[in-house]
TrEMBL record:
<dbReference type="InterPro" id="IPR015720">
    <property type="entry name" value="Emp24-like"/>
</dbReference>
<feature type="signal peptide">
    <location>
        <begin position="1"/>
        <end position="22"/>
    </location>
</feature>
<keyword id="KW-1133">Transmembrane helix</keyword>
<dbReference type="GO" id="GO:0033116">
    <property type="term" value="C:endoplasmic reticulum-Golgi intermediate compartment membrane"/>
</dbReference>
<keyword id="KW-0472">Membrane</keyword>
<keyword id="KW-0732">Signal</keyword>
<dbReference type="GO" id="GO:0005789">
    <property type="term" value="C:endoplasmic reticulum membrane"/>
</dbReference>
<protein>
    <submittedName>
        <fullName>Transmembrane emp24 domain-containing protein 6-like</fullName>
    </submittedName>
</protein>
<dbReference type="InterPro" id="IPR036598">
    <property type="entry name" value="GOLD_dom_sf"/>
</dbReference>
<comment type="similarity">
    <text>Belongs to the EMP24/GP25L family.</text>
</comment>
<dbReference type="InterPro" id="IPR009038">
    <property type="entry name" value="GOLD_dom"/>
</dbReference>
<feature type="coiled-coil region">
    <location>
        <begin position="149"/>
        <end position="176"/>
    </location>
</feature>
<feature type="domain" description="GOLD">
    <location>
        <begin position="55"/>
        <end position="140"/>
    </location>
</feature>
<keyword id="KW-0812">Transmembrane</keyword>
<dbReference type="Pfam" id="PF01105">
    <property type="entry name" value="EMP24_GP25L"/>
</dbReference>
<dbReference type="GO" id="GO:0005794">
    <property type="term" value="C:Golgi apparatus"/>
</dbReference>
<keyword id="KW-0256">Endoplasmic reticulum</keyword>
Amino acid sequence: MAPQLPSCLLVVVLVLVGPASPGPSKDLNPGMTDQDLFWGQDQYDFSVVLHGSGQDCFWHFAHKGETFYLSFQVLWVTGVGHDSHLSVTVNSPSSLLVSTVDDASGQVDFKTEETGFYQMCFNNFHNRFGSMQISLSFGVSYDGEAPGGTKEEQQKEEEEEARQKLNSTLAVIEATSYRVEKHVFHMFRFYNLGRMRRSADSFLQQAAGRYVTGWSAAQSVLILGAGYLQLSFLKRLFISKSDSNLEKTRC
């Protein structure tokens, strides 16, 4: 007869191994589609620093038919012989070139023809030994209504439309609020563009102030040094020398 394991040993083995558990969940939101996760209008505003001959790329999701926009502004540039021009390219999800800009500031607006992630690349190729800070504002806006992902959602939308037809006042209020929301969204876009330009002007003013202060200090030192040298030269003209009989001056 085979020997039997003690019950205490079985308990220890079960504690070490633990109960059987399913693997990690790969889909955290199984009931949500890509349209539920990404659809809508959004906006991102931040600034980055590009080093000499550096490149930085960002990706943003957009559906077909949405309006994709990008605004950028160079805030400051460092280095010798620096150039404030920035090379910007926007590529579609199929790697096709959609737009390109080569300037210190610019805006890109276009209707998306594909659904996917659009690539934005910012290149500091004009400055090999200087860095630059750029301010970015990009996102998407949609003027229509997002299509329903399931039959239940479509049925809910149809019921909502029926309720709106029964009450015209509610429909007018909804249309007006949507129009106001869209206008506020675009006003916020232009406000960010103006803020980026004001920041660039502020950095330029600070740089000009440091330049004027530095040159003024250098010129003051030069003037004081020249005056001291002139005074020393004049004093040397009146230095007296004595010989065996009498004293004779040099001037």
